[in-house]
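QA checklist item 7 of 12: single-chain prediction sanity check.
[x] sequence parsed
[x] length recorded as 468
[x] structure emitted
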Amino acid sequence: MSDPVVTRFAPSPTGFLHIGGARTALFNWLYARGRGGRFLLRIEDTDRARSTPEATEAILDGLTWLGLDWDGDPVSQFARAPRHAEVAHALLAQGRAYKCFSTQDEIAAFREGARARGESTLFRSPWRDADPATHPDAPFVIRIKAPQTGETVIRDRVQGDVTFRNDQLDDMVLLRSDGTPVYMLAVVVDDHDMGVTHVIRGDDHLNNAARQMLIYDAMGWQAPVWAHIPLIHGPDGKKLSKRHGALGAQEYRAMGYPAPAMRNYLARLGWSHGDAEFFTDEEALEWFDLGGIGRGAARFDTKKLDHLSARHIAAMSDADLVEGVNAYLVSRGEAPLDAAGNAALGRAMYCLKDRARSYGDLLDKAHFALAARPLDPDARAREALHAAPGGLWPELTRALQDASWTRETLEAGLAALASTLGIKFGALAAPLRAALAGRAVTPSVIDMMLVLGREETLARLADAGCSS
C-alpha cells in the first residue's frame, strides 16, 4: 500500500490571494482530496518587512471562500527558523556544508574579475575545502557543498525530465551570517518535516527544484514528486497582470462569481479531462490528475468564466443561490437580506437563474421582488408608463381582480385584454413591466405577477394609475 498523498500550498503573505495562487492551491487540494490524502497550508512569512497579518488573513479568507479547506493549523515558516538552522548545522557537522568567510566585497570583486576575463561568474568559495584551523574569528555564512561534476535531474510530472549541469550550480548559502536561514533551506526542511509527498507549484520554481535537490540529497531525504505547472497569461499571451483586469480571488468574489464556478474555471486553466468544460466538484475530484496538466501557459478568458458561471448558477439549488447572494452582499460591505427579502428572492429564483452570470445579475433581475412600494421607475420605465394606452390601468385591474392566479389564466387574460384594446401584446406588456418592476428589463410579466401575488400586483397597478 502506497503512502498517503500529502500536498501543500505555501503562499507568501505580502498581498492578496493572487488568482494564480488560487489555482495552485486548487490543484493541490484536488490532488490530495481526490486520493484521500492531506492538504496542508504553510505561510511563508520569512520576509518580515513585507509579511503582514492582514495579508495572511486575506489569503485565508480567499481560500475559505473558494472552499479549499486545509488540514491542521497553518504553519508559520518564520516560527520554524530554529529547526531550519538545526539542519544547516547538521550538514556542517557531516562535512556536507562549510563555513564561508568571504565578504560581499570579495564576492563582488571575484565576479567582476571573472566577467572581465569572460569566465563564469558563479562564485567558487576559497573556504570550501579550507582547514578549520585556518578559520578566522569573523562572521561567516554556511554554504552547502554542491557536487561540481555530473548532472541533477528533476523528474517532473508535468515538464518531464529536466536536467541541470552541476557545474552550473553554486554552493548555495543555507544560513546567513546573522544565523537566519535562507528560503531554499526553509522550504526543503518544512516540506520534509510536514511529510509533503507532492510539490505542485508554478514553473517559475523549476530552477529552485534543482537547488533544493542538493539539500534533499545531502540530508539523505526522499525528494517529493515534482509537478511544476505553467503560469497563467492574459488573453494577449503575456503574463497575467493588472492591465488584464482583476488579479485577486477576493475581487472575483466581489464581482459575484459563485465559488463552484471559480473552482471549475480555475481547474480548467491548464488542466483538462477530455472535452469536459462544465463539471461538478465531485467530478473534478475524481478526474484530476497530474497527467492532464499541459506544459503551455493557460490564458485567462473572462468570457469563458462568465459562461461557466452562468451554467453553475442555473444548476445550483435555489437555497444555495439565496445563501450565495447574501454572502456576496456581505463581501461587498452591504447588509444581507432580511427574512422577507430571502423569502421573496427564493420565490423568484426560478425565473432569475437562467442566463444570470453572477450574484449581481441575480439581484438586478430580482429588483422587482425586493423593491418596496412605491417604486421609483428608471428613465425607460417612465417612458413606458407615459406611453400606456388610455384607460389601461382600470382595465388591467378589472381583468385581474378575480382572475385565477395561474400562468395559463393570466396569459389568456392579458392576451384577451390586448385584443379588446386593439393593441399588440408588447404594447400591453411594456407599461405593465414598468408598473410591476420600475424597470424596462425584467423577467416576464407573467413570472413577476406569479412571484408578487395578486395583492401586491394590484397595488402596484394602482400606484401606476395614480402616477400616470
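[x] summary fact logged: The chain has a mean pLDDT of 95.
[ ] second reviewer sign-off
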